[in-house]
Design a protein that fits this description.
A two-stranded antiparallel ribbon has the order 1-2. It is α+β, with helices and mostly antiparallel strands.
Length: about 80
């Protein structure tokens, strides 16, 4: 079922006529790219995760011939110096 919901300060608000069966439930929500303030980043590598945290939510990059590690290293050097 697809319905229109509203996001308000961290809460997803369902229309008044929609009730969920359980008090706690998990479901998939499709969010348009244009409304996401920062991309969601997940990695198993703790060093890359820390590098992303150090760069902050504003950091993003486009794919290139460089590895993610190379891109993050360059961005950290640019932000914090060598």
């Amino acid at each position: 079922m697809k319905i229109e919901v509203r996001y308000d300060q961290g809460r997803i608000i369902l229309p008044p006529n929609v009730r969920l069966r359980d008090d706690v439930t998990t479901f998939t929500l499709e969010i348009p790219n244009g409304v996401i303030a920062a991309p969601i980043y997940e990695t198993a590598d703790p060093a890359l995760k820390q590098a992303h945290a150090m760069l902050g939510l504003d950091y993003s990059y486009e794919s290139s011939g460089k590895t993610e590690k190379e891109l993050l290293t360059e961005a950290l050097i640019e932000k914090y110096g060598s």
